[in-house]
Write a structure and sequence with these properties.
The protein has 4 helices and 5 strands; from the N terminus they run ββααβββαα. The chain has 132 residues and is α+β, with helices and mostly antiparallel strands. A 5-stranded antiparallel beta sheet has the order 1-2-3-4-5. A hairpin with a 2-residue loop joins β1 and β2. α1 packs across α2.
């Protein structure tokens, strides 16, 4: 893994979430992960999505090396990760990925269950137009 400190930057964004027919806003600050974050990022991803460590260790090392892994933290703990992987085959494109902590996902699933709904995760094409 290299040292992406010269490439370190952070962005802030606001997420609007509609839950129970009302909109709430949650703010976050993202920062590019560094080598020092690797072990925590692996542990977070393993816990949140159950991916095998043997896959996560090299995969996240490469994301960090390329400054493609962003972290959202609260109280010194990762609560979400995002990745923006530049597509090396299709110039001008990037693949986006998001892992939210199990606490948020569990709360959303519980809300669905309380309302006798089956939860589905999806991204609508219009989300990209609104975001950018």
């Amino acid at each position: 893994m290299g040292n992406p400190s010269s490439r370190t930057w952070s962005i802030g964004w606001t997420l609007s979430v509609r839950c129970r027919r009302r909109w709430t806003r949650a703010s976050t600050n993202l920062r590019v992960a560094t080598d020092a974050d690797h072990a925590d990022a692996v542990a977070f991803a393993k816990s949140a999505i159950g991916a095998p460590e043997g896959f996560l260790v090299p995969y996240l090392a490469e994301r960090i090396e390329r400054a493609e892994l962003l972290l959202d933290e609260e109280g010194g703990s990762i609560r979400a990760t995002g990745e923006c992987r530049v597509d090396r085959t299709h110039t001008g494109y990037a693949h986006l990925g998001l892992i939210v902590g199990s606490q948020l996902m569990n709360a959303l699933v519980a809300d669905c269950r309380r309302r006798d709904l089956q939860p589905l995760c999806s991204t609508e094409p219009t989300n990209f137009r609104r975001a950018g």
